[in-house]
Design a protein that fits this description.
With about 325 residues, the protein is an alpha/beta fold.
Length: about 325
C-alpha cells in the first residue's frame, strides 16, 4: 500500500530541485530572504514548494490563509510568532511566515497583515502564494516583491516544459512504469504546467498496477473536471441534479472550475463531441464573462452554477 503522497514525496527540498524559469531563479538568488515575496500564478507551478524551500533555513510558521483568514490569526498566531526570539537561532536570524493561498484572505486579515509586516520588518520575512493576484489588495501587494510564475514568453515555457518532461520521466522510471518517449511528452503536454496533477496521475497509475504506458493510453485519460464536462455535453439536462452535484463536489473549487470551462472544456469537446466544435467560441466567451465577474458576486458558487447552466443551454440549442 502506498502511504506517502507523491506530491509530498517528490516535493523539491532545495533550490536546485525546483523547476523554474531562469527569470525566477535570478530573483531568488542564493535563497537568502532579504525581502518579502509574493509568488502568484496558475496552480501546480511550484509556488508553495518554492515558498517552503526559501524558508527551509529559517524558523517558519505556515498558515493556509484559505482556511485561517480571521483577524485572530494575525493577532494570536503571526504576531506571537514574530514577537518571540529563538534562543537557538539567535536574535539576528529572521523568522519566516508562509502565507499560502493569500488570495483567500478576508478584508480584516489583509488590513491587519499590512501593519504586521511593517511592525516586524527587522525580525521577520513573509512569503505568500496565490493563484489569483487580482484578489490581493494593492496595499498588500506593495509590501512584497511580487513574482509571476506564469510564463512571460514562449522560450520560457519551452525551457520549463523540457524540465517537466525530464522530471516526469525520472519519476515514472522510479515507479517502475515503462513509457514510450512520445507518451511521456504527450502526458506532460496534456497536464502542463501543473506538476501537482502530473504527480497525482502517476500515483494513480501505481495504485492501479499500471506497468507500461503508450501514447494511446494517454489520450484516453480523463480531464480534471471530466464529470462536469459530461454534464455540460450530455443529452439529458437536470438542473436540480446539476445544482446538487456542483455544490456538493465543487463548491470550494469555483475558480478552478471556471478556469477549466474556458481552457479544458474546448479540448474535451474537440476530442469527445466534435459535433459541438462550432459552439466552442460561445463557450469560451461565457467562461470569460463569469471569470471576470467572479469577484463581484456575494456567493462565488453562483457564478460557477450560472456558467455551467449557460454552457449546457448553448450546447443543447
Amino acid at each position: 500500500m502506498i502511504q506517502e503522497l507523491f506530491t509530498e514525496k517528490y516535493r523539491p527540498k532545495n533550490l536546485d530541485q525546483l523547476i523554474l524559469p531562469t527569470r525566477i531563479r535570478k530573483a531568488f538568488g542564493e535563497g537568502e530572504l532579504h525581502q518579502n515575496f509574493l509568488l502568484y500564478g496558475s496552480p501546480g507551478l511550484g509556488k508553495t514548494s518554492s515558498a517552503k524551500v526559501l524558508a527551509a533555513n529559517y524558523p517558519t510558521l505556515y498558515i493556509n490563509v484559505s482556511d485561517e483568514s480571521s483577524v485572530d490569526v494575525i493577532r494570536e498566531k503571526i504576531t506571537n510568532w514574530c514577537s518571540t526570539i529563538s534562543l537557538m537561532d539567535g536574535a539576528e536570524k529572521y523568522k519566516v511566515v508562509i502565507l499560502d493561498e493569500i488570495d483567500g484572505a478576508s478584508d480584516q486579515f489583509n488590513k491587519a497583515l499590512r501593519a504586521t509586516i511593517e511592525k516586524f520588518a527587522h525580525t521577520a520575512r513573509f512569503v505568500a502564494t496565490c493563484n489569483y493576484i487580482n484578489k490581493v489588495p494593492e496595499p498588500v501587494q506593495s509590501r512584497f516583491n511580487c513574482i509571476s510564475f506564469d510564463f512571460i514568453s514562449i522560450e520560457e515555457e519551452k525551457e520549463v516544459m523540457v524540465e517537466f518532461i525530464k522530471r516526469t520521466w525520472s519519476i515514472l522510471k522510479a515507479a517502475e512504469i515503462k513509457i514510450e518517449k512520445e507518451a511521456v511528452i504527450e502526458f506532460v503536454k496534456r497536464n502542463f504546467p501543473d506538476m501537482r496533477t502530473i504527480l497525482n496521475k502517476v500515483q494513480s497509475f501505481v495504485i492501479q498496477g499500471v506497468t507500461e504506458i503508450k501514447v494511446e493510453d494517454i489520450k484516453k485519460l480523463n480531464y480534471s473536471f471530466a464529470d462536469i464536462f459530461q454534464k455540460v455535453c450530455g443529452d439529458k439536462i437536470d438542473p436540480t441534479e446539476t445544482y446538487q452535484f456542483l455544490m456538493v463536489n465543487y463548491g470550494s473549487k469555483v475558480d478552478d472550475v471556471l478556469a477549466a470551462l474556458g481552457s479544458e472544456l474546448p479540448e474535451y469537446i474537440r476530442e469527445n463531441h466534435p459535433k459541438f466544435i462550432a459552439k466552442i467560441p460561445q463557450i469560451v466567451i461565457k467562461a470569460a464573462h463569469y471569470q471576470s465577474q467572479r469577484t463581484q458576486v456575494i456567493d462565488p458558487a453562483i457564478s460557477m452554477l450560472a456558467a455551467v447552466y449557460e454552457c449546457q443551454m448553448i450546447l443543447s440549442n
